Task: inverse folding
């Protein structure tokens, strides 16, 4: 069994527009190999040798002297795009918000700053989007649209009770130099949270949404089914009495059954 040493690809001349090797198997045809990058070339944080053997495309019209840092940054952006969660029906996924909230609150708990955080009055909550809005900690969120475009959001956490917090999410406007209140648009998401500092987890998360006029507030239970059964029995008895005796007698029977049901 033979063991071969794996190393970086040999440096060769590259095309300035596509960054593809002109001759990837040597330096024949009178071409001069491209020089190695100087020792002071910028390195990629966390993976200094990740891009040594990559051939990355560049935008059209790019100059020949494109710095290595720009190439690396472009690749990191495209690689990170696959890790960003997509929007669901134009809304941020709730698990994405919960994870960011838990991360921010856990940092506060580790720094023992939760006990020092005062409760905020309702009129000053970020969800009101007032000029004097107050928040305790701020986070960032990112999500992708169907066409792959990345949208950025700001998440504001504010304490409203002993263990209750509000999370208000605003879409970030890149054209604005300062993301201060009042924001140009209302919050896209508002959540009320119940946080347990001992475990560092969000125990409950309730999103404030517009109520549906067609959905009942409370699901029918056994009491509603029992009442419907009594009403059906009363109607059947009243019809039988009306057919055998008379309608006044049927009305009396129907009233008696209704009284017994309510009692």
Result:
């Amino acid at each position: 069994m033979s063991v071969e040493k794996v190393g970086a690809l040999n440096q060769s001349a590259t095309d300035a527009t596509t960054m593809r090797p002109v001759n990837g198997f040597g330096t024949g045809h009178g071409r001069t190999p491209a020089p190695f990058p100087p020792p002071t070339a910028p390195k990629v944080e966390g993976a200094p040798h990740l891009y040594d053997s990559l051939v990355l495309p560049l935008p059209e019209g790019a100059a020949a002297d494109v710095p290595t840092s720009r190439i690396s940054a472009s690749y990191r952006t495209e690689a990170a795009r696959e890790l960003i969660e997509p929007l669901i029906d134009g809304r941020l996924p709730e698990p994405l918000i919960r994870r960011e909230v838990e991360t921010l609150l856990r940092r506060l708990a580790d720094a023992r700053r939760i006990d020092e955080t005062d409760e905020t009055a309702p009129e000053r909550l970020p969800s009101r989007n007032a000029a004097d809005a107050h928040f305790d900690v701020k986070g960032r969120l990112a999500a992708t649209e169907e066409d792959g475009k990345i949208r950025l959001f700001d998440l504001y956490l504010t304490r409203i009770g002993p263990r209750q917090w509000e999370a208000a999410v605003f879409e970030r406007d890149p054209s604005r130099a300062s993301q201060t209140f009042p924001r140009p648009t209302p919050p896209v998401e508002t959540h009320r949270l119940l946080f347990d500092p001992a475990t560092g987890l969000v125990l409950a998360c309730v999103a404030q949404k517009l109520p549906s006029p067609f959905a009942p507030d409370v699901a029918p239970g056994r009491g509603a089914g029992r009442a419907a059964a009594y009403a059906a029995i009363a109607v059947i008895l009243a019809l039988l009495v009306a057919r055998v005796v008379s309608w006044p007698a049927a009305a009396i029977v129907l009233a008696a059954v209704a009284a017994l049901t309510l009692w």
Q: What stands out?
A: The chain has three domains: 9-83, 94-207, 231-262. Residues 222-244 form the longest helix (23 residues). The beta strands are 137-144, 150-159, 164-171, 189-196, 201-207.
